[in-house]
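ARCHIVE CARD
Drawer: 12
Card no.: 0347
Subject: one protein chain, sequence and derived structure
Cross-reference: see card 0346
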Amino acid sequence: MRSYVMFTALLLLCAARAADEPRTVLPGSVPAIPFPGHLTAQLAHSHNPDANIAVLELTLPPKTFGAPPHVHSREDEFFYVLEGTVHFLEREETVAAPAGTLMVLPRGHLHGFWNPTDEPARMLLMISPGEFAGFFDEVVARIKKENPDSPQKVGALLIEAAAKHDVQIHMDKVPEEARAFMK
């Protein structure tokens, strides 16, 4: 319980500093971005250069892949599991993260995630610096424009977009247990 209270305080501080003006983000008030593998809602963005953090809510349906193994060169990511259980690849290890888990994934470290369970999962994702949050909108816009007709073409589009943000995707590092959830 104490870690949840500490994380909530940190989240509130970061979200407040990430906005130019105070604001309230009510449930359902932010449109979801239909990112491949999970819905994404950007709750706070990095328009304030002093804060430079983004806060997103991710919803992973049951038995879905969230993100392939990848390495950020410029961003740190903090995932807090709100509901369900999410499996994370953290370097070479798979970690089952139930609700209440905080995953701290600094730049330069291989990570990915998926939901292997029969229940949906929800997470908060904080990204610092927050400019990377635009990646999600960019990918969805390209998918709508190019209308890829296979998972391989969607994957190629993701890899290309990630490379523009100095993120390296390592499909060869997908754990065997996660392969069944890739579509």
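Annotation on reverse: Residues 2-18 form the longest helix (17 residues). The radius of gyration is 16 Å.
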